[in-house]
Amino acid sequence: MTQDSAEPALAIRARAGSADAFGRLVQMHQQALRAFLRRLCGNAADADDLAQEAFVFAWEHIGRFDPARPFRPWLFGIAWRKYRERKRGWLRLLKRESAAVSDDTGFAPDPGLKLDLVKATSTLPPEQRAAVLLCLGAEFTHAEAAEALALPLGTVKSHINRGREKLAALLGGSDG
Amino acid sequence: MDEPVLKNLWDADVPASDPRFVLAVMARAEQRRFRRELTMTVALTVAAIGLLALVMPSVEFAWRESLSPYFGNLAILGILGAVTFLVPQLWPVRD
Q1: N or C, which end of chain B has less CB nearby within 10 Å?
Q2: pTM of the entire predicted model
Q3: pLDDT for A22-63, tens place per residue?
Q4: What angle do helix axes A19-41 and A71-94 make, rounded to 10 degrees?
Q5: How far apart are alpha carbons A38 and B90 in whole angstroms?
Q6: Contact A99, A33 (CB under 8 A)
Q7: Residue B27 CB partners (closer than 8 Å, separation 6+)
Q8: Between residues 17 and 36 of chain A, which touch chain B (CB distance below 8 Å)?
């Protein structure tokens, strides 16, 4: 794809300080990142804010990016860390450290999203949810997801298998 | 429910590409850069003022003790030198 072939060149230009190149990278990845965070958070406004934070952090720390590696896992890794940081803040604020897994997002569900899928996804533990969303929802390879989530490859594969089974079990009834 | 169905469900939830989002990201980055530079400038200014306030007594003392007592003599010497140099230039001797 043209986008895929343009990405390394844009990442190199952005690393050299080109705001225009970085703007194009934002344009290129915004949909996938916002979708990933929306599924993770369950709330569109918070997810978009988090996506902006992730992009701004990426721009400020673009010097740390290794141009020999793909840009997408690096960017999603930032987003995942930002999500966890913010969730910790929310949890601290709400004093819900010991809440049930189904309540661990700290977000109010957005009525615009498909509630069944959101509900089913929100029952997965955070790392499992992120792995499933990256590999099944954002077409990441297992290796890319492992890089983004800073997890061993085997753990990611196991998260995906378990997550997929759980989702299938939860959504299977309502679907058929 | 199999994997393709799951993917289709998620694909239906992908937000539309929004040019305003790109602008918002770049504006936020620029605001943060401006705030960082402003903070740095203010911090450096305050540090310079503090440093000056600290060294000023020493500078003032050095001026008063070493150069200040001779300031009058140096001024008179300068004026005499200037007059000696300028008078022949302004009113040359005529035969």
Answers
A1: C
A2: 0.70
A3: 999 999 999 999 999 998 888 889 999 999 999 999 999 999
A4: 50
A5: 87
A6: no
A7: none
A8: 19, 22-23, 26-27, 30-32, 34-35
